[in-house]
Fold this sequence. Notes:
This protein is mainly β. The chain is 10% helix and 47% strand.
Amino acid sequence: MKLSARNVLKGTVVEVTKGAVNAIVRIDIGGAVVSSSITISAVDELGLKVGEQAYAVIKASDVMVGRD
């Protein structure tokens, strides 16, 4: 698999929560957890299950930073 994104983080799926249309997938990438909202059909096609390895692929032209 080759991607144009430069931020490809390998980790372990720690949670998959399916809703009516989308699912929230949480991937532990070495102590930090990345969450993603993807379609349920994508979860099924990728065969995402807790305990299995997956990649969080991040491609963004902007990163927002905030503080209180």
